[in-house]
Amino acid sequence: MSDPKDYIIEIVEETPSELSNKASTKKTWTFAGIVQGLSAIILEWTPFGLVASYYVFSTCLYMYCSDGLIAIFWFIYMCTNFYIAGTTVLEAFFSITPCREARKIITQAQEKGWLFPTADRQLPILDLIIVAYLPNEQDIIMDRAMYALEQLDYSRERIRINIVYNTPNPIEPLESELHQLPLRYPHARIIKVPASTSKAENLNYFLTLDTGSDLIAIYDCDHYPHPNSPRWAAERFMADSEVDIVQGRCIVFNSNDTFLTSMIAVEFDKIYAVSHPGRSTMWGFGLFCGSNGYWRTSLLREMKMDSSMLTEDIDSALRAFSRGCKTVHDLNVTSYELAPTTVSAFWKQRLRWAQGWAQASMRHVKMVYNDVQDPLREAHSKRNVTARLGVLSLLLIRESSYYLVTQYTCLVLSFLIVKFPSSGKELWTLVYFQYPVSQWLFIISLVCLVATLWITNQVKSEFVSRRMIIIFSALYPFYLVVNATIGLYGHARQLVKYSSWNPTARK
Hints:
With about 500 residues, the chain is α/β, with parallel strands linked by helices.
C-alpha cells in the first residue's frame, strides 16, 4: 500500500538569499506529494470497495426477491455449476491419453538405457533464459544459475545458459559474482538489462541479440528444470516440424512449507498435469504459461513480449494461437518451482494473474469469430469450430464464471440471513436441495468433481500426498469462491486502470 509520506519531497536550501522562499516552496511540494499519495491510496483501495459493494448489494437484492424469481436464479446458477464441473471433468478425461503417452515414452527411454533418438551433435542450439528481478530474487539466483550450468543434461556445445536480469540498484558482491561465471562456464552468458522494469522488457532486450539459436527456453528464476527437460523438449521439436512451442509441466516442490503451499501444489498438479493437456486435446490448442516453455527462436523474435500486459506470457500464447501456431503440452518436460508461502504474496500474485487474464481475454476474445491471421507471414486460414468453442470457453465463459459463482454465493448468503437454519440438516436442505432439480445438478457436479480429483491423484507429483488431495477436495467449494473473488478483483483493477506490477516474493 502506498504511504503519503513516500511522496513528500524535502527541498534543502543552500544559500541565505533563498531562505525567505523556503517555507512556501516546501509547502507547495509537500502538498503535491500528499495529493499524489492519496491518489495512489485511492487507486489501491477502489477495487476492494467495488468488490465489497458488489457482494453487499447482490446479497441484499436476493433478500428482497420473490420465491419465483429466486427459483429462476437458483436454476441458472446450478446449471452454471454443472457446466463448469462437466467441462472440468471432460478435460480431465481427455488428459488421460497424453499422460499415458508420456509414461510410455519414459518406459521406452528406460529400456534403451536413456539413449535419445537425436545425437548430441544434431541437437538444436538452445538458449535457455533465466529471467530475474534481483532485489526480489537475489537470494536464489546464484543457486539456480549454478544448477542450470552444472545439472542440465544437454550438450554444452549446443546450449547457452543466459541469466537475464534487471535491478534498480547495484547489488554487490552478487553482480560481480554473476559476471564471473562465464570465466568458469563457457556456456554461461550474463546479461544485465538497462532501464528494465519487467520480465517482458528483459526478454525483449535479449531478443534483440543475435545468438544464433534454434530454440529459446524461458524460465522464471525460482525454477529447477529437471535435468532431462531440455532434451525432451528438443526431441519434441525434432519429431514434429510443425510444433512451434512446447510447454512443460510445472511442479511445486515446497509443498511442505505451509498449508497454503500444500494446497497450491495440488492446484498446480491439477492445472499442469490434467487441465492443460486435457484442454489441449479437447479443444485442439495449447498455451505457453510463462515458464518452462520452449519456443522456436524465429517465432519468438518476430512476436516478442508486450510489456503493457500484466501477464505477457498469456498474451503471447494467445497471439501465437491467433496466428495458427502449434503449442503442445509435454508432461515429460518438467520443472520444479516455489509457491508463495504467505497469504499476502499469494494474494498479490493471483491479483496480477487475474487482471492479466482479463486484459488478455478482452484483447483476444475476437478469435471466437475471426479467422487465423498471421500478418508477419501473410498467412490466412479458417479457424475450426472446435477451436472457436475452446476460445469461447477459455476466455469469455471462464471470465463470466466469476460472476456466476459469486452470485450463487450471494444467493446462499441471503438464504442464511433470511431463513437461518437451526440444524445441519436444514442447512444442507437449504443450500443444495431448495428445489428438486438442484439434487440432480448437485449430485452430478459432485461426481464430476470426484472424478477430476481422482484423475489428479493418478498423476500427482512426488511432492503431493493423497492426504493433500483429500483436503483440497473438501475445500474445493471455498477454493472456487476465493478464485472467483480474485477474478472480480482483477476486473475491478482493470476497470480503474490499475497498472502496478507486483513481483512474487521469493525465498
